[in-house]
Amino acid sequence: MKNKRYSSGDIFIWFTGMGLAISLIMISGLLLLIVLNGKNYFWAADLKEIKLTDGKLVLGEVIKEELIPNFNLPDSLKNKGLKRIQLKIGNRDLYGFDFQWIDERRILSVNYPLDAVSIERFEFGNFYGFIKELIIKETVYKSSSPNFYATLNENLNLVSNLRERIKKIEKSEIGKINYNIEKLRLEIKKIEYHQKNKSIAEKKIADIKKEIEKENLNYERLKRSVDSLREKASMYSIYCEDINGRPKSIALMDVVKYYRPNQMSYSDKLTYMFSKIFEFIFDEPRESNTEGGVFPAIFGTVMMVLIMSLFTVPLGVLAALYLREYAKQGTLVRLVRIAVNNLAGVPSIVFGVFGLGFFIYFVGGTIDQIFYPERLPTPTWGTGGILWASLTLSLLTMPVVIVATEEALTQIPRGMREAALALGATKWQVTSRIIIPAAMPGILTGLILAMARAAGEVAPLMITGVVKLAPTLPFDSYFPFIHLDRKFMHLGFHIYDVGFQSPNIEAALPMVFTTTLLLILIVVLLNITAMIIRARLRKKYKTSAF
């Protein structure tokens, strides 16, 4: 019976099924771990007031509970199952830290004060405590007065509108002026470098300086407008106290939002969660990337993958077509195939170093010397950018596309080629109208694998263009609209930077897990899109074995 199972292969089917089940369990467990550790970033957790045995009060969100290790306990308390809790107490500007561990033996009582507020700020993280007063110029509104929070909300919205106006002026209008001044400055350098006639050069430069002077006057006007708005916003502030009565004055200009979690219903918390998710996806980061959103990183990741695909797929397919359809099969072709397969196993950092040396220093440096000599020694293309990062990842993923395309080409029946040639079609007509469409599902399989790997790579990007915080996106309203020479943000590097380079690791952990989940979702979304296209092509070209 035993030999029969081996000879029939049934036992190996069970082994493969068991391996698949274990893989699915591990993947599901990993995703569950990411979700559980990242959910606190979006959920409005209740604020717990804990009175300690020494009379002190602590207020904060419960982050986690765990058993105290036995080696930290005296012999009489070992194996008692004593717990400790970690509280996020916020108020980093008051305490110097925003997390605290509390042994349950020190807890005298627990309470949930209804008026406790969580204030999200642009700096120093959250403030946990109580709002006592709203101050507008010299007018003071006490928290005990009727409609206090309605008045607070109205003025907070007013200040938020002022902040948005300031941001719009600084980024749009002042940003455009700075862009124009920089463009004019580079024009002067270009004239000085290329124009040999001194009198003509001086006349052109004088005209340009007049334009710069006009832009500077516009800048001063807008700066006065911004200063006026800031001065107006500075009139609004709130006076707060922490759980032990320690005072803190917070300008409304520094407040993102506030909420009273102990008074919020479940539906209120769901509404807050969706607003937080929207903020996470569409806002810019703040607080050293540990708060706010990740939109620049999302944009950079997707744009890089798309640019990489534009280079990888055509070149990879052409290489595979030549090796399979046109090249004379022999020792040289076999060596090329071996080399391609070996490239798939080269560490990604090696490709990063190659991209730095070849694309940035050689190609980019040559472009600067030929087309932008007046800007040197400041590089334009001879420094990291999204184009060079995309080309580096293109080389990294090219072997995957070549191998997948070759495998697809081998599955096309030889009779299809011979029948087309017999009917008078040329070799190119057979290739373009029969072979490539029939092999398209396999080509898309290679693209799916390439996108999945490229989206998660970090090491090559660190030396070819990715940065911690990009001041501008590679796409904007300034001609030529797509700026491939700019540095960019990437979700994978964002995870590394926040998780390992942040000055406050514990506060950054929720952002690490939420960004990881978002990166997984983006990769899955890109792959699903490619899979849908592949499925339709499979249905259309049923002769393909895929």
Give a summary of the structure in a few sentences:
This protein has 546 residues and is an alpha+beta fold. It is built from 14 helices and 13 strands.
Describe it.
This protein has helices spanning 2-8, 10-38, 92-95, 148-194, 198-233, 266-282, 295-326, 331-343, 348-371, 386-410, 414-422, 427-456, 491-500, 505-540, and strands at 48-52, 57-67, 83-88, 99-103, 107-111, 117-121, 127-136, 139-142, 236-241, 247-251, 255-259, 285-286, 291-292. The model has no long low-confidence stretch (mean pLDDT 88). It contains 14 helices and 13 strands. Among the domains are: 141-264; 296-540, MetI-like fold, CATH 1.10.3720.10. Helices cover 58% and strands 13% of the residues.
